[in-house]
Design a protein that fits this description.
- This protein is 0% helix and 54% strand.
- With 117 residues, the protein is an all-beta fold.
- The strands form 2 sheets. Strands 2, 4, 5, 6, 9, 10 and 11 form a 7-stranded mixed β-sheet that branches. The protein has a 4-stranded antiparallel β-sheet with strand order 1-3-8-7, with no helix packed on it.
- Strand 5 and strand 6 form a beta hairpin.
């Protein structure tokens, strides 16, 4: 079955960096766009970034543009989110999401990122 397993979250001070990873299995990873979406406790979902199947096209929310970088390694079936210059407002649960032509169809369980002193 399809699985998406995020890792790399944790507690970081403002201005710090983290790299999230999402290991995918159960489908042909290299054929699908992948997304990162985040959600703060008690708040709605916020789309963060997406990457095309080959990794050559990336897109970002304005709130993270210039600070976050999405990438993928299709040989490892893994998508990454490098996060720099982290701010307290980046504190969220970050989800890795697979999409098909109809939209987002599979979600990981998420990894918590906390930005605090």
């Amino acid at each position: 079955q399809i699985q998406l397993v995020e890792s790399g979250g944790g507690l970081v001070q403002p201005g710090g960096s983290l790299r999230l990873s999402c290991a995918a299995s159960g489908f042909t990873f290299s054929s699908y766009w992948m997304h990162w979406v985040r959600q703060a406790p008690g708040k709605g979902l916020e789309w963060v970034s997406r990457i095309n199947s080959g990794g050559g096209a990336t897109y970002y929310a304005d709130s993270v543009k210039g600070r976050f970088t999405i990438s993928r390694d299709n040989t490892k079936n893994t998508v990454y989110l490098r996060m720099n210059s982290l701010k307290p407002e980046d504190t969220d649960v970050y989800y890795c999401v697979k999409t098909n032509k109809y939209g987002m169809d599979y979600w990981g369980k998420g990894t918590l990122v906390t930005i605090s002193n």
